[in-house]
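Crash report, auto-generated. Payload:
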Amino acid sequence: MTRQQMNKIAVGVITAVAALVVIPTVLVIVYIFVQGIGAISWEFLTQPPTNGMTEGGIMPALLGTVYLTFGTAIVSMPLAIGAAIYLAEYAGDTWLTRMVRLAIVNLAGIPSIVYGLFGLGAFVLTMRLGTSIIAGSLTLGIMTLPVVISTAEEALLAVPERFRVTSYSLGATRWQTIWHQVLPQALPGILTGVILGLGRAAGETAPLLFTVAAFYLPDLPKSIFDQTMALPYHLYVISTQVPNMPLDIQYGTALVLLMIVLALTLVATIVRTRMRRRREW
Amino acid sequence: MTVHTAVKPKIAVRNVSFTYEDGTRALKNITLDIPPNEIFVLFGPSRAGKTTLLRLFNRLSDLIEGARHEGDVLFNDKSVFDEDVEIASLRRRISMVFALPTPLPGSIWDNLTYGLKLAGVRNEAVLEERVTESLQQAALWDEVKDRLNSSASALSGGQQQRLCLARSLALRPEVILLDNPTSGLDPLSTGIVEDSLAELKQQYTIVMVPHSVQQAARIADRAAFLLDGELIEVGDGGELFTNPKDQRTEDYVTGRFG
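Recovered output after restart:
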């Protein structure tokens, strides 16, 4: 066998392996879609579950997930962007920044159930927020910090140095330079990170267990201090805790959750590519 | 080695050395006077320390982490390193144009008013006056007067560089630092920029790192030849290029190395 043939085979094998990665993703999406699409209807999306959750819709859970996603964004965005600005623009390589980076890496590796327990201890009990939307949002917000901080820092560092130097040379202070030049240019990247983080938060179950999620609560929450149902937890409940649960409702719920997460990822991708095309460097 | 001029220097460099974090000495005990209202050219081969010296004048050198300097730079007789010097305002008075034209994102108007707005100028009439004035000085007015609100990055390379010059001029600085401002420009644009500079020295002090020895000889009222961080020779533009005193200067201007 010649070297050229060997090369061709190697390229072929590697391409095939890369293509294999797509298969599980497609399979999951297609399978859930086919199984769940029958259950989707306007009523399914706008009615609360009835008859021991074996009939009716998923509206309270859907709305709860929307609330929690917003809450997570409100918690994590200022913290993450602030931390990223500090790391990328202010801090050099000091023991403090090394500690912060180490903390971020470790935060990313913590199992989500541990976040749930942490939320229970810190927010629900110690801060006396009770099981509530705010406790859940804080927990999910902290959980999304690593991904949002890392992408935001990357986006800030990707802004070419010459824009900073130019700004300084025109009499801008460091903060003015960050505010007027660096942040606007890094915004698409930062938003991408935020949305990806939210996509993950929207699909999480374990952090909600003790901090916010209600087993069955047809009434909608009236304030951020109320409990709410949430889609991932609802899915868990109807898949494992409710006897004689119709399969199509389970798959329908899974489909809605999957669509929310995919939609967020899609939005992130679109934001990123559009802004990249418009970018001047 | 100081050339004593009758007028008070605008910028006086006194025994300046500059060392990067890795220990490289980019400048070695430089002393020179830059008189007002002239084009002062700093030339020499790459790694001579020209840009480093230029960036010390408005303390852009502060951005270089781990570097340190010795000696002093006096601007109007006052050290730029004094504690009470407000760096932002120093950089408005000693403004800089870089080799790579860098329009900030936004319109031509946004670019020209950026520094002014940061300095607290809000009055539209004043902004408009400065924009018009600076674009005229940079010989760009006729080309862009009808599209001040269009994107600055849509301009050609030559126009972008004149925009950057105008952006500095809008601040009405006392000194303009130009770090190889014509490096990416075609001969025509280079000519336009050089002509504007010759006009501008009536009002400003200009310190420039030139693109080539030829350019240096064309525009310099006074020139300093740097080599490996050392100041070899300072002299009148005419004198230095035709009748250099130091052998190394002669070798460089006649193209024997560099």
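Post-recovery validation: Chain A has a mean pLDDT of 89.
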